[in-house]
Amino acid sequence: MNGEDPDSLSPIYEGPIEVDDYALLKASAFLEGWATSSPISKGFFRAGLPLDSAVLLTIPNPQYKGRGAATLHDNAKGDEVNFRSPTWIGYREKPFEAMLKVKEDTEISKLVLSYLNDMGAYIMPPVYVEVYGKHDGQEWRLLNKKNLPVPSGYENKAIELVGIDIPKQKYEWIKVVAQN
Q1: What is the value of pTM for the model shown?
Q2: Are 140 and 133 in contact (CB under 8 A)?
Q3: CA angle, 147 as apex, 65 and 157 as ends, to 5°?
Q4: Which of 6, 52, 156, 172 could staple 28 via S-S, CB 3.0–4.6 A?
Q5: What's the pLDDT at 165?
Q6: When comparing pLDDT for 166 and 77, which is higher?
Q7: Distance CA 17, CA 118 (A)
Q8: What is the pLDDT of residue 160?
Q9: Average pLDDT of the chain?
Q10: Residues 144 and 131: beta-carbon distance below 8 Å
């Protein structure tokens, strides 16, 4: 759970693992005299932000339209095996932009996004993610921008997670922009 691929010196799984916020768990199988398995990874985080609704501001690629804006708040997670499933939304020419209507009286301090990184299928991670917020009819305000590392070479297929801290308060709307 430290972000590194496991090796023969990594801790051995011995029971339940508690996840307070979000975590990317990576695992491999080791057996003396056998080749080590390729690492697998799985992201875990608390079920979604309490949303009333979501609106896509940019239209996804027709091949990867998921279930439209509902894909963002249905608590169904995509996996790394089937990127064409309706649990994923994909963008190519345009950045991902969406508005999320937050349920009333909900304080938010962090947004966690997941994305698929599958270079073999030309599915690349975003370059950066911006989070905006507004409340009580105010103008949009940039809450945080997180630049993501640009891959320097081929990476194994994996679901990646990015946590973005924002000032803890109540927001009526959250807007997310992920630049492809």
Answers
A1: 0.79
A2: yes
A3: 50
A4: 6
A5: 95
A6: 166
A7: 27
A8: 85
A9: 88
A10: yes
The rounded distance, in Å, linking the Cα atoms of 86 and 72 is: 11
CA–CA separation, 99 and 127 (whole Å): 19
DSSP per position, 144-169: EEEE-PPPSS----EEEEEEEEEEEE
What confidence tier does 170 reach under pLDDT thresholds 50, 70, 90? very high
Q: Which pLDDT band holds residue 78 (cuts at 50, 70, 90)?
A: confident
**Residues present in the chain in total:** 180
Strands (E), the chain: 22-27, 40-45, 51-56, 66-69, 96-102, 107-117, 128-134, 141-147, 158-170, 173-179
Would you say 146 and 164 are in contact if contact means Cβ atoms under 8 Å apart? Answer: yes
In the block, which residue shows the tokens 């095996």?
Answer: 81
Residue 111: count other Cβ atoms within 10 Å of its Cβ: 20
**Tokens 């051995």 map to which residue?**
12
Name the β-bridge partners of 96.
178
User: What pLDDT shows up at residue 82?
Assistant: 86
Q: What are phi and psi of 63, to 5 degrees?
A: -75, -20
Identity at 133, one-letter amino acid code: G
Rounded Cα gap, residues 56 and 68, in angstroms: 7
SS3 43: strand
Q: Is the pLDDT of residue 48 over 70?
A: no
- For residue 123, what are the β-bridge partners? 118
113 or 132, greater pLDDT: 132
